[in-house]
Design goal:
By secondary structure, the chain is mainly β. Helices cover 5% and strands 50% of the residues. The protein folds into 2 domains: 89-320; 322-425, S-adenosyl-L-methionine-dependent methyltransferases (Single Sheet), CATH 2.20.130.20. The strands form 8 sheets. It has a 21-stranded parallel sheet that branches.
């Protein structure tokens, strides 16, 4: 308890002053802005926006560090005439010292899904997007090129937590059946998915139209952490074509090209390829779980349904896993590390830092030595768990602060594993 109190005091003392502004679509008492995007353009980098319930236009954060905390009921409104003009949330062109954190922003009323999904592009600093359970499944016009629910390109540290990201539909533009889209596309980036559900788009079809399913995740030259996250490829479809029964193909859970995949989870966090139902003489087909090239390090308890391509190097071993909560101001910041039963676990918390390597360990460290603190250490239980909690001061300046948790596992020969980084916000 003494250590936890020291951490709380350390965090309170290390908080730099951050300007805080209130956004309220109804222009309620104490608000400075009525639209999120207007506030984003007006406030200085490093500010915190507290967004009250209401309907707002899409958000673009460009070259600026910013925290956006959305109350329940704050959401993006449908586009005019239900015709998509771009992503509902875009983060781009940030520097290594600029942190962007957005919590609780999702779609609003029926029709808002006609926005494109989320785009993170050329972000060199930490980006934390916390969906608070939101589902993203866009239906977009043929003029929008993003297509996927989430697209991340050339970004160094991105954390996506508590979102359900489903492959959407893109209008064919000619009055035909829509085109299924990938769930998530990641290119040249390092991304941690924590407590997410990634799903591809299922096949659509009719006698004169063929729309195959799409994968949940496309990863190219990237490092992907799947932490307590399930991944399911798009299913196929059995239908009737011009010349009889027709089987529309499914897609794998993951399409990888030179990708490094790490799956940390339990039996509930399956990786499963899509299924193409039987059609006529064509039997039911279970597509592969992962296709392409790269590597996969996976906990042995995670179910894999469908084959993993021979060109993907697979290592099966327990991986230290860390998950954390989203604490309220004056509440308790908590994290649980799942490691090898009986091993010594050390859990630290602090301000985010650029990823660095630790000699002898395969996973990067996202904490800096100057602004991080060991919360606690101890032995993992018989169930392999070690939990920690830090009471947070009620200091207003803490609201909107982004924290990074990370743990190390000590085996017989010394530190032999790092957990995933788990980033969270103080709401």
């Amino acid at each position: 308890m003494r250590t936890q109190l020291l951490v709380a005091l350390f965090l309170a003392a290390s908080v730099s002053a951050q300007a805080s502004f209130v956004v309220d679509a109804s222009s309620g008492p104490g608000s400075q802005f009525t639209d999120i995007q207007t506030a984003v353009l007006a406030v200085p980098s490093g500010s915190v926006l507290v967004v009250r319930a209401g309907s707002y236009s899409p958000v673009l954060i460009d070259g600026k560090g910013l925290t956006i905390l959305c109350d329940a009921g704050a959401a993006i409104a449908p586009p005019p005439f239900f015709f998509a003009t771009g992503p509902f949330l875009t983060v781009r062109n940030t520097q290594p010292n600029q942190v962007v954190a957005v919590s609780g922003l999702g779609f609003g009323p029926v029709g808002a899904q006609f926005h494109d999904g989320i785009l993170v592009q050329n972000a060199m600093g930490l980006v934390v997007l916390d969906g608070q359970g939101a589902t993203v499944q866009p239906t977009v016009s043929p003029t929008v090129t993003n297509g996927a629910s989430l697209k991340i390109t050339t970004s160094s540290q991105v954390v996506i937590r508590d979102y359900e990201l489903q492959g959407g539909l893109q209008s064919s533009g000619g009055g035909g059946a829509p085109l299924p889209q990938f769930g998530c596309v990641v290119d040249s980036s390092s991304v941690v998915f924590e407590s997410c559900r990634l799903r591809g788009s299922n096949s659509l079809g009719a006698s004169d139209q063929i729309r195959f399913g799409k994968a949940a995740l496309v990863a190219t030259t990237s490092r992907i952490e799947l932490v307590a996250t399930s991944v399911t490829g798009g299913n196929g479809l059995s239908t009737t074509g011009l010349f009889g029964p027709l089987q529309l193909l499914a897609d794998p859970a993951v399409l990888a090209t030179n990708a490094q995949l790490v799956a940390r989870g339990a039996a509930a966090h399956a990786i499963a390829g899509g299924i193409a139902p039987a059609a006529g003489a064509q039997p039911l087909v279970q597509l592969g779980a992962i296709s392409g090239t790269g590597s996969l390090r996976i906990d042995p308890v995670i179910p894999v349904t469908g084959a993993v391509a021979a060109s993907v190097l697979v290592t099966t071993a327990p991986n230290a896993r860390l998950t954390s909560n989203v604490p309220a101001l004056g509440g308790v910041a908590a994290a649980t590390c799942t490691a090898v039963s009986g091993s010594l676990v050390v859990v630290a918390i602090g301000e985010p830092a650029p990823a660095s390597t630790v000699p002898g360990l395969p996973d990067p460290l996202w904490l800096g030595a100057a602004n991080s603190f060991v919360v606690d250490f101890g032995v993992a239980s018989a169930a392999g768990e070690f939990a920690v909690a830090v009471p947070l001061p009620g200091q207003p300046g803490l609201r909107g602060i982004t924290l990074v948790w990370q743990a190390a596992q000590l085996g017989p020969a010394g530190f032999d594993a790092l957990s995933n980084p788990s980033a969270t916000l103080i709401r």
